[in-house]
Amino acid sequence: MSGADASRPILIGAARARVERVLLLTHRAPEITSAALPRILSIVDDVGAEVVVPAAEAVKHPSLSANQRSDGLTMRSDGSDLILVLGGDGSILRALAREAGSGAPVLGVNYGRVGFLASIEQSDLQRGLRRALSGDYVIMGLPSLRVEWSDGKVSAVNDLALLRGGDSRMADLTYSVDGEKVATVRADGIICSTPVGSTAYNLAAGGPIVSWRVRAFVVSFIAAHHLDTRPLIVAPDETLLVTNSARVGACDMLVDGIKIGELAPGRSIAVELSGADVHLATFPEANFFRRYRQKFGRE
């Protein structure tokens, strides 16, 4: 990532165009959102927008007609296309990862437990959806991680986690930044988190909360066996290298909560904040700190 990219404002700006086309994605459990679909389709139709869905959505919800399918659809990034997700944070994350690089913004309606990434609550569905379809929202450009190891590379919107695997009682991990060794720690695992992911696994592990306007990523530790081990903030133009220093025992590698492989003893994995930006649609007043107070704080 170049210095210019790293310093780019994270707030892209307001969408001025009325939304013309909505890509609809829903919670993996169809019964959670099926009752809401007629109402949502009615609102979208009423404002004159087109609804399209992947074939998998039509399988989950037979009420969606065949002419709404969007196989091979290319999303537009000019504000006229919107990806509408009915689900929790997991559903919204999958949508962000799926559309990374397209430029089309993702707007979440909360049908989950926390819904930190969602901009509309079910209780405000009518007003919030009509407002969004009129183009009255802003777009947050949020960074993702680029993770590379000997077997391949992948992007992470939320986090990369290296966890002790198999019969290992503890992981031995050595980490360095830009070639400079920082430490070797014994722990249950290590989490590398984007600002978006800082309120997820990183938060549960005692890591710091990072505002969405900060371009950096967090390294935090799970049950570290060192009193002086503390979370680390890594700059956007720095590369973190984590090595499995154990003599035996691989570490499980999870990206956004999904296992993608194992890191064998002696192998390393590189992490940078250089994945494609993802785009979250939100309302100006629903900023990071208001969400944080409402979801995790005490009103």
3D structure, described in words:
- The protein is of the alpha+beta class.
- It folds into two domains: 17-134, Probable inorganic polyphosphate/atp-NAD kinase, domain 1 (Rossmann fold, 3-Layer(aba) Sandwich); 145-275, Sandwich (Tumour Suppressor Smad4), CATH 2.60.200.30.
- The chain contains seven helices and 18 strands.
- The chain has helices at residues 3-6, 37-46, 55-60, 89-98, 125-133, 201-204, 288-296, and strands at 11-14, 21-26, 50-52, 81-87, 106-110, 120-121, 138-149, 152-156, 159-164, 171-177, 180-187, 189-193, 217-222, 232-234, 240-244, 251-255, 258-263, 268-282.
- Strands 1, 7, 8, 10, 11, 15 and 18 form a seven-stranded antiparallel β-sheet that branches.
- α4 (89-98) links the parallel β4 (81-87) and β5.
- The protein is elongated, with a radius of gyration of 20 Å.
Question: What's the short version?
Answer:
The protein has 299 residues and is α+β, with helices and mostly antiparallel strands. The chain contains seven helices and 18 strands.
CATH topology title of the largest domain: Tumour Suppressor Smad4
Main sheet record: 7 strands, antiparallel
What percentage of residues falls in helices of 4 or more residues? 10-25%
Structural class: alpha+beta
The fraction of residues in strands falls at 35-45%
Basic shape: elongated
Q: What is the radius of gyration?
A: 20 Å
CATH class of the largest domain: Mainly Beta
Mean pLDDT: 89
CATH architecture of the largest domain: Sandwich
